[in-house]
Amino acid sequence: LKDQRFLYGVALFFALGVFTKGPIIFAFGPALLIWFFWQRDFTMLKSKHFYFAAIFLVGLLAIPFLPQLAFEGKSYYRAMIEYKAEFINAKNPAWSHRFAYFGVLFFGATPTVLLFLYNLPKLLKPNLPSPENPNFYKISGLRLATAIIFSVVIPLSIFDMKFPHYMLPVYPFLAFVAGLSFETFVAKYQDVIALYTKRISVAAICFFVAFPVKLSGGRDKQVINVVDLLKFDPKIQEKDIYYVGDYHSDMSIFQSF
Questions:
Q1: Chain centroid, CA 53 distance in Å
Q2: More confident site: 15 or 90
Q3: What's the Cα-to-Cα distance from 36 to each of 33, 141, 160, 191, 207, rounded to whole Å?
Q4: How many CB atoms lie within 10 A of CB 95?
């Protein structure tokens, strides 16, 4: 927020988000727009870095159109859209209601959500500290985190297709805002917390060295048997299966498209 050259990093990670997570990353666009109006500050739009970063982003997003990166003759975007279209209209009565994701967040991270709601009024205050105040950038960042939360949860709640793991990107931003409640406590006992964190870390390392966690056992054999049953099942073999490892290796990782 202090140095607008960070926008090039935002563009890079936005593109990586599109390539790895798909459409959900586009929630950042509405969140940024909400943040502009919330802050009542549009000076970033006057920066040359904003527009150069936008051009840089367009260039990155155009990379999947290269013929060399085609997936079965299709670009990444076309393959992703066709894959998503297969289940975009899927309905589950237990998840079709509009408040399903709010329930996922509340019952999955109740303390964090309660602390988020407790701190939210502090962010809704119309007046911000002056830019010279250290709290200015803290409050601005937490407002952006809040805008991202609502930009993810509300649009996804409109669709009938819902999956709990779609809320995973929301939890870190909830934690950022919830952590505002501990700011005074951490500042007061910062030295003590740092000291005991180091001591606990050393104790944990010693514990795991003395009692190493085994990576082999009976459960591994069960997993191998399940994988073998699946990948050699005639019904599975009829489908288009892409193996990450060697097809005949015991622990081949596969995914069906």
A1: 22
A2: 15
A3: 5, 12, 30, 37, 49
A4: 17
Tell me how far CA of residue 147 lies from CA of 35, 63, 159, 170, 230, in angstroms.
Answer: 6, 29, 20, 11, 43
Distance CA 234, CA 251 (A): 19
Question: CB atoms < 10 A from the CB of 35, how many?
Answer: 21
Instruction: Tell me the C-alpha distance between 156 and 169, whole Å.
Output: 12
Q: What is the pTM of this model?
A: 0.65
Kindly report, residue by residue over 194-226, the tens digit of the pLDDT: 777 888 888 888 777 666 555 444 445 555 565
Cα 134 to Cα 20: distance, rounded to the nearest angstrom = 35
The tokens describing 101, both together, are 């994701």
pLDDT tens, residue by residue, 91-123: 566 666 778 888 888 888 888 899 999 888 888
Amino acid at 203: A
The partner residues of 242 in beta bridges, in order of sequence, read 255
What's the CA gap between 48 and 52, in Å, rounded?
6
Residue 83 has pLDDT above 80, yes or no: no
Structure tokens at 83: 């894959």
Give the pLDDT of residue 232: 67
State the DSSP code for 24. Answer: G
Instruction: Name the burial class of residue 49, with classes exposed (0-12), middle (13-18) and buried (19+) by CB atoms within 10 angstroms of its CB.
Output: middle
If residue 81 lies in a helix (H) or strand (E), which one and from where to where? helix 76-85
Place of tokens 């970063």: 53
